[in-house]
Amino acid sequence: GAVVSQHPSRVICKSGTSVKIECRSLDFQATTMFWYRQFPKQSLMLMATSNEGSKATYEQGVEKDKFLINHASLTLSTLTVTSAHPEDSSFYICSARPPQGQPPYAGVSQYFGPGTRLLVL
Amino acid sequence: GENVEQHPSTLSVQEGDSAVIKCTYSDSASNYFPWYKQELGKGPQLIIDIRSNVGEKKDQRIAVTLNKTAKHFSLHITETQPEDSAVYFCAALVSHGSSNTGKLIFGQGTTLQVKP
Predict the structure, then answer these.
(1) Beta strands of A26-85 (E only): which ranges?
(2) Computed from CA positions of residues B78, B35, A79, A63, in that sequence, does the dihedral angle turn out positive or negative?
(3) How far apart, in whole angstroms, are the C-alpha atoms of residue A15 and residue A38?
(4) Taking CB atoms and an 8 Å cutoff, what residues of chain A touch B106?
(5) With an 8 Å Cβ cutoff, is A114 touching chain B?
(6) Helices vs strands, H then E, count in chain A
(7) Are the Cβ atoms of A111 and B46 closer than 8 angstroms?
(8) What's the CA gap between A100 and B88, in Å, rounded?
(9) Do B103 and A108 touch (CB under 8 A)?
(10) Can you tell me the mean pLDDT for B44-48?
(11) Nearest CB to A43: which of B32, B98, B106?
(12) I need a labelling partner for B95 at 20 to 30 A (CA). Which of A31, A49, A50, B9 fits?
């Protein structure tokens, strides 16, 4: 089946520093990747939609200058949390959209990564 | 705006019993409804999905039903096992054009506990 990886799985950083999270689709090319944030005991909230070779589309209320997204290739998207603060501590999850209509991915909207736990001290 | 409501927030059942989780969605244009299982500290895993041209879909102990008119869809787990214990999320795809474009709107999640 399709695999999406994230790196790192967890990161601890000091307040004011920047942190980069990578999302990779390992066995398929993803023209679109999504970034979600999940606070404890809450649902997944879409932060932005990342399209390869173009600017990301951010959801309302998400600061694009704080959460920098780069989708430089068909298998890699990165999320950089700039000047991180304790309130940015969360579980960040990416997903990748498989090629539409192509087996074995046909019909599946997104494959999710394992998530990255960010703790800002 | 788009919204997905999920109930109950917690559900405790005895092993072997059935569990039902219900969701309603607001966007009548939604046409794809996946269900995810999320274990602690992990990403969501797709367990079953249904498209709007189908009323019911079953995969072994798991089934999903969809009522387009009422904008309801439900997850049914039969013969529950302790390993079914997890958080379950429903979602609706807010579609723009073809069925695989758009974004997923998630429900609030249901914590299922299956007691041995």
Answers:
(1) 32-38, 45-51, 57-58, 67-73, 76-81
(2) negative
(3) 20
(4) 43-45
(5) yes
(6) 0, 11
(7) yes
(8) 26
(9) no
(10) 94
(11) B106
(12) B9
The 10s digit of each residue's pLDDT in B29-44 is 898 999 999 999 999 9
Instruction: Read off the pLDDT band of B96 (50, 70, 90).
Output: low
Angle at B79 between CA B77 and CA B85, to 5 degrees: 65
> Hey, what are A106's tokens?
């046909």
Q: How far apart are CA A38 and CA A103, in angstroms?
A: 30
Q: How many residues in chain A? A: 121
- Decide if A114 and B42 are in contact by the 8 Å CB cutoff: yes
Do A49 and B103 make contact, defined as CB atoms within 8 angstroms? yes
What pLDDT band is residue B100 in, cutting at 50, 70 and 90?
A: very low
Q: Is A49 on the interface with B (CB under 8 A)?
A: yes
How is residue A63 written in tokens? 């600061």
Nearest to A100 among B89, B98, B103 (CB): B98
Blockwise average pLDDT, block size 10, chain A, 121 residues: 90 97 92 94 94 88 94 92 96 90 70 96 96
pLDDT digits (tens, 9 = 90+) for B3-22: 999 999 999 999 999 999 99
